[in-house]
Give the backbone structure.
Amino acid sequence: MIEEESLSNSALDDVKEPTDLRELYEEKPLFKGLKDYKGELLFGSTLLILLYRWNLQPVNVILIVMLVFWSSIRLLSTTKLFSSNTELSGKSSRIRSAKITGLLLSVILTFLIISSLIFLNVSPQTGGDPVMFDSQNFEEGAFQNLEEFSDGNSSWWGTLGEYMVSDSKRAPTTVLPTKEYQSLEPNGGEISITWFGHSTILIETANVTIITDPLFGEDNTDPLFFGPSPFPYQHSYSLSELPKIDYVFISHDHYDHLDMDTITELQ
């Protein structure tokens, strides 16, 4: 009876502490774990280089974001987060991975929501609330086109595909030819109109000077620090070159029409 009891207890110990299963699901440090993915890392690096050579930078950005997300999950897996000494099965390991992934997604989503709300309610970059206008174009709090607009045969997916694979669809591939600005100093009933790109137009008469949607920033043009930069011009322009501005007209508060640095300088 004693031998049977000892044998039975030994068998129970083996069931409770399966050495092979414990080693199989033992969490490894992140960088030691990367050694197990040498082939995948080599393949991924080669793929990124090829995509760069093929001018598929947007695809590279997506892959890098996915890699950072995966690395974050691996890093969190090396901690005791959601871990349990009694759960060593494959199912419990997958459940823990799902919990970590859900937590990471929740943190990212919460950060985006909170930062967006703060920006929209605090930053002057977004402009103010619309007011009523006595115009037949103004309906339901916004300006409307009186004529029906058609974008031809283009589609959203087609435009996205062209953006992903074509440099010329994302930005000019060469420096844009421009002329140096020189005020014509109009006299009498003359009007001088200078186009600086997009919707920035300077209108000069002998008595008044008007500018629309002034955009003279040299860094990224959107609220985010990693946003797009202005296209390269042959000649750059600054407010110091312009005559005294009497009126500033801003069509709407999108970042490519409302540049807070320029507006602040004009004030």
Observations:
- Residues 174-266 form one domain.
- Strands lie at 138-139, 142-143, 192-197, 200-204, 209-212, 247-249.
- The mean pLDDT is 77.
- The radius of gyration is 30 Å.
